């Protein structure tokens, strides 16, 4: 009998991760003999966990907060997205070497491809926030040909560091610039936790009535599915895309690496995850 393929998601803490639900759903619907488990590792324990993956029978797994940058440093090779972003969320073995990839940019673009086809015909984007998720999204926007990417952040220095990293076409602004940038941006993305359930009362206060009617607004927050920011956009008559699809699509390449089958993001999967929220 073939050995069961094992994969994991690790982070600290890890109990809120929805990845086991997603991969568990695909293992079941594809009828595969595999396992996908959440494993909590502290920052101190993480390097030893990674160096003993093969001994422990893992084909690979996902890495989440706070290990994404450490994982990048521990990998022997990287995919192009991980190189550009400087962080790894997916590990697998190829010809005996530990590879690190970053699938967040893919997940972001695939979600918009699914729900807002043609989104990448725009050339200007406004990205709110300058954390880890924002880096992946700026990489996705650059890869899809956006020539003007404006990063707005509470802490200007962080946005500036990102703009310097990504080079021409990417610029940094303080929060006060956001309103003026609304009118010229074909895509507006929230990457901050503002509007997330349990994250306090502060919300994104932007007047979206000044946006061009063809503007697409998306949020990486998916609890609630329609964030106050997406509601503002919908009320302004704009096309909105929620963040759940990014979570589902970013899981696809990892599953294919470990289990050898490219899984599908279906309405059934979406319903399965929503039922748990
Ligand atoms: P992630 O990896 O999920 O992107 P992160 O690296 O902690 O998370 O980044 C969170 C982003 O949300 C940052 O841009 C942060 O702004 P700062 O760089 O100024 O900290 C932004 N953010 C978090 N809370 C915020 C708030 N209350 N108002 C405005 N921006 C906020």
Give a structural overview.
Residues 9-91 form the Shikimate dehydrogenase substrate binding N-terminal domain. This protein has 277 residues and is of the alpha/beta class. The chain has two domains: 5-103 and 251-274, 3-Layer(aba) Sandwich (Rossmann fold), CATH 3.40.50.10860; 105-244, NAD(P)-binding Rossmann-like Domain (Rossmann fold), CATH 3.40.50. It has twelve helices and twelve strands. Helix 7 (156-166) links the parallel strand 8 and strand 9. Helix 5 crosses helix 6 and helix 5 packs across helix 10. The protein is globular, with a radius of gyration of 19 Å. It binds 2'-monophosphoadenosine-5'-diphosphate (ATR).
Strand arrangement in the largest pleated sheet: 2-1-3-5-6-4
Which descriptor suits the 3D outline? globular
Poorly predicted segments: none
Overall pLDDT? 96
Bound molecules: 2'-monophosphoadenosine-5'-diphosphate
Helix content: 25-40%
Number of domains: 2
End-to-end gap: 37 Å
* Count of discrete alpha- or pi-helical segments spanning 4 or more residues: 12
Count of extended strands? 12
Task: Write out the CATH superfamily name of the largest domain.
Answer: NAD(P)-binding Rossmann-like Domain
Element order: H for helix, E for strand: EHEHEHEHEEHEHEHEHEEHEHHH
What characterizes the major β-sheet?
Answer: 6 strands, mixed
Seen as an oligomer or otherwise, the chain set is single chain
